[in-house]
């Protein structure tokens, strides 16, 4: 039986480790069989999906971590949050997409578990 897990991430990709820990857990869960993982990025977390990130050697790269989730899961970004941060659709990594609060409401209703970071 498929378990549906929704991750809601609010914090910026760098500066603290909340987004990092959410993406670590989401990546591990997405790799498991019988797990459907969805990730919704809100507020400053939309920066996690910015394409072309260059971080110092030895430092984690949330863009690469999102790629692990995207292999078997879905990643959506709050469109209003993107607009507030001047993040355009063509600036996000391939596979991640602009979304809405209505989509988040649907995903929340469909999820067996909702984890908020």
Describe the structure.
By secondary structure, the chain is α/β, with parallel strands linked by helices. It has one domain (3-116): 3-Layer(aba) Sandwich (Hypothetical Protein Ychn, Chain: A). Helices cover 35% and strands 22% of the residues. It has helices spanning 18-31, 62-72, 79-84, 101-110, and strands at 3-9, 35-41, 74-78, 97-99, 113-116. A 5-stranded parallel sheet has the order 4-3-2-1-5, with helices on both faces. α1 (18-31) runs parallel beside α2 (62-72). The protein is globular and about 40 Å long. It starts with a strand and ends with a strand. 33% of the residues are buried.
Describe what is shown at a glance.
The protein has 4 helices and 5 strands. The chain is α/β, with parallel strands linked by helices and 117 residues long. The chain has a 5-stranded parallel β-sheet with strand order 4-3-2-1-5, sandwiched between helices.
Radius of gyration: 13 Å
CATH architectural type: 3-Layer(aba) Sandwich
Do you know the CATH topology?
Hypothetical Protein Ychn, Chain: A
* Straight-line N-to-C gap: 26 Å
CATH class: Alpha Beta
Q: Per DSSP, what share of the residues sits in E-state strands of 2 or more residues?
A: 15-25%
The helix/strand class is alpha/beta
Unreliable stretches (pLDDT < 50, length at least 5) are: none
Q: State the strand order across the main sheet.
A: 4-3-2-1-5
Helix count, DSSP H or I runs of 4 or more residues: 4
| Name given to the CATH homologous superfamily | DsrEFH-like
The helicity comes to 25-40%
The description of the largest β-sheet is:
5 strands, parallel
**Count of domains:** 1
Which sequence of SSEs, written as H and E, runs from N to C?
EHEHEHEHE
- What oligomeric state do these chains adopt? single chain
What gross morphology would you assign? globular
Number of strands: 5
